[in-house]
## 1
Amino acid sequence: MSAKHTKMDSELLQALRAVEAMPDNQIVTDDEAPEIRDWSHAERGRFYRPRKVQKTVRFDADVVAFFEKDGPGYQTRMNDALREIMNRALRKAPTKTDAGSARSSRRGKTVHA
């Protein structure tokens, strides 16, 4: 198992190895398999990995320095910060007043149309 994968508890690992050793005709794959009804411990998006796109972008030097000061992984931290902003914007429900006010932002200054 690679270092990227989470460690499985030994009971689950034993069960998986037992199923792996079984012949295919003995593995239950139809309606006989029990239905999972308790999803309280499920994690949404656990195995989701967004596709990465390589771009050349220009950031202000102080912004890059802020993220670089904590060492390696600064690009991931920048991506996480941008994703948080994106998710906040996506969660915001558009209202009728939002559609009526055209605004654009450039270098931190809000311009009203």
## 2
Amino acid sequence: MDFTGRIVVVTGAGSGIGQATARLFSRLGAYVHGADVDRGSVEALVAELGEERAAAHELDVRDAAAVEAFAVDVFARGRGVDVLHNNAGIGHAGEIEHTTIEDWDRVIGVNLLGVAYGVQAFAPRMLEQGRPASIVNTASSLGLVAMGRMAPYCASKFGVVGLTEALHAELAPRGLHVCAVCPGIIDTPITRNAVLRGTPGERREGIAGFYGRYGASADQVAGAVVDAVRRNRVIAPVPRSQVSPAWWAKRMSHRTGQVIARHMPRVVLGRGAGT
């Protein structure tokens, strides 16, 4: 697939996976609308890519009216949208007794409802274009296999995977491909900026170090996003060698999935952090 002249929209484009995806689509010839709650970060990205190749938008994906206005603005420019990457997301970890209602609201609001609002604002307009298009939603390996101490995050990402599968079944026959990209351990700022409570909060430096040592790059995820669009994938784990074994093990046996969920915190948080 040639992306020259295509229009790509990326939320959470100011850093991490979103920034890498915006850069890659731009290199492949697309015009990129980059959106982020931090306007300065997307303005810096546009300065890097060039104003003739990209536009910056300030956007809080938790605000449904703002997402709708964003879609109106993009489509008002008259070129439609070929790829929407609903990528904006936040991290959270902590024992349930240390987790707050505000944590649930924030994580679900950004990670799940932010995707839903993006779909609701863009999908009907993309269907009316009369040409094939794609929506890629950033989920997580923790949307495929659960992990203890991360209930709100897993709930949000499992929701993204389910939303994606349902929408693809509905929309693919009408020319709109929908995919969930499911990153595993990725070295991005989301780990350092996540809300960590209880034991994870005490081990923040160790967690960041673990992701720094063993995490794949945001560029690798961006490549998986482009590949998912080109190949019409529905679920795209990345890196496959890291995510797929646990996913397949869980699909073979839910009991095995529970073993993984209980013991994964020891891997990420260190010994003594098992559930």
